[in-house]
Every structure is written in structure tokens, then in C-alpha cells.
């Protein structure tokens, strides 16, 4: 399984990641969502380099131009709710892709820091022989990503899976390597952080991406 850590090379991506981490910037929700979206756009571009392409001919006012477009059928799958601006960034560039959405949430046990992950909602097209891009800005434990993937496979088995996150913990990277099909999965992230705290939040991370994008929930 290949892991692409895009922070290993200098690009504008690092500027956007630094802003979503920065407590003096991230409280501007509009800017936070737009930075998440822009990271999605850049990551979609990087993933597009790995796709197969087919030639097409385009008629211009002065002749015929031969060019290439992606050959595979793409599905962008996102875990609600924090994943929505990230998803939108991918869709800005991969605008012919189909879309899938999964509701996954943590339910903490009473008087405990332990939690279970629940899936409540799935909306997805058929996935057979398609490329599935699973997006979630924060890949903390990998548990939500695994459950979302298994929920989506009720719609068929994709040809290849791209797991895309903005900030991942090393624990989650190792977890996904163990749980996802090795030959058919690629992991993309903009940063890998070393630790998780007792609540399974990434350290140093950025906090709760859903709350920062859309406001606190009760």
C-alpha cells in the first residue's frame, strides 16, 4: 500500500494547512471552510496524476485537437459533516465524478473516554469497477474510514480506493494499512501527526474540524 504524504514537498498546500491549524485564523469559519476546500482541490489534482487517461478529439474553431481525459469512472465518498468542504474541493476539479455520502459519528460511553462509531445514513451509486476516493479531513483512528468503506461496499466493490485526509495520525495510517486491501488502496494526506490524546483527537492536529467549519453541536 502506497502512502503519499504531500507535506514532504514544499507547495501552497503547506500554507493552507498552517492556516487551518492556527488558532488565530481558524475561528473565521468561512476562511476555514475555504482552506479545507482548497486543500481538496490540490489533493484532487495530485490524485488525478495517477489515473488512466483516454484520447479524445476536440473540435476548435480552427481545426481538431487531440487531448486526454480520465478513463475511469470516479466516485467521491465523504464522511459527514466535517468532510463536506473537503468533498466540495475534490468535486471542483473532478467535476464529472459521482458522489457518495456516509454519516458516521462517535458515541461516547457514559462517564468514559471510550466510544463506539455508528453509521446511520448512506447515499451512494453502484461502485463496481469504479475508483472510490474516500475523503475525511481528519484521519484520527481510522475506525470511521473503515466502517464507511464497509458500508459503501454494500453498493459493490470498487476497483481501487484512494483514502484522502488532510491531517492523519500515524496510528490511523498503520490501522488503514492493516484493514484495507493492500494492493487496491492508496493513502493521501497533507500531514502526518505523531500522537492521539485520550479522546482520540490528533495531536497537535487542529481541534474538531466539524465544529470549526459549521459551529459547535450539542
Please provide a brief summary of the model.
This protein has 218 residues and is an alpha/beta fold.
Which tags fit this structure?
single chain; 218 residues; alpha/beta; Rossmann fold; eight-stranded mixed beta sheet; two-stranded antiparallel sheet; 6 helices; 12 strands; 30% helix; globular
Q: Unreliable segments (pLDDT under 50, ≥5 consecutive)?
A: none
Based on CA atoms alone, the radius of gyration comes out at 18 Å
Tell me roughly what share of residues is in helical segments.
25-40%
Mean pLDDT: 92
Largest sheet: 8 strands, mixed
Dominant shape: globular
H-E order: EHHEEEHEEEEHEHEEEH
Instruction: Calculate the terminal CA-CA distance, rounded to whole Å.
Output: 38 Å
Topology:
Layout (H helix, E strand, L loop, with lengths): L1 E4 L6 H10 L7 H20 L4 E8 L2 E8 L3 E7 L3 H10 L4 E11 L6 E9 L7 E5 L2 E2 L3 H10 L7 E10 H10 L5 E9 L1 E2 L5 E2 L5 H6 L4
Parallel strand pairs: 1-10, 4-5, 4-7, 7-9, 8-9, 9-10
Antiparallel strand pairs: 2-3, 5-6, 11-12
Helix pairs in contact: 1-2, 2-3
